[in-house]
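Thioredoxin reductase, pasting as requested.
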Amino acid sequence: MRKRNATILLNSTIETLIPHDHQDKIKQVVVKNVVTEETNAIDTDHLIVSHGFDREGSLQFASSIQL
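C-alpha cells follow.
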C-alpha cells in the first residue's frame, strides 16, 4: 500500500509547476513563502490548491437568491 500524507503550506504562492518527462503529471512544485520569502522545490504527485474565500457571505445576504 502506498504511503498517503499531505503537506499544508500556509502563506505560500506557487512559483512554478515542473512536469514529469511525459508532461502528463506534476513532478515538483516550487513554492515561495510570502512571509519569509524562502523558496522551496517540493517533490509531489498530486497538488490541491485552496485559494481562500470570504467567510462573510455578503453575496448571499445581498441577493434574493435562497441557498
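Note for the archive: The chain has one helix and three strands.
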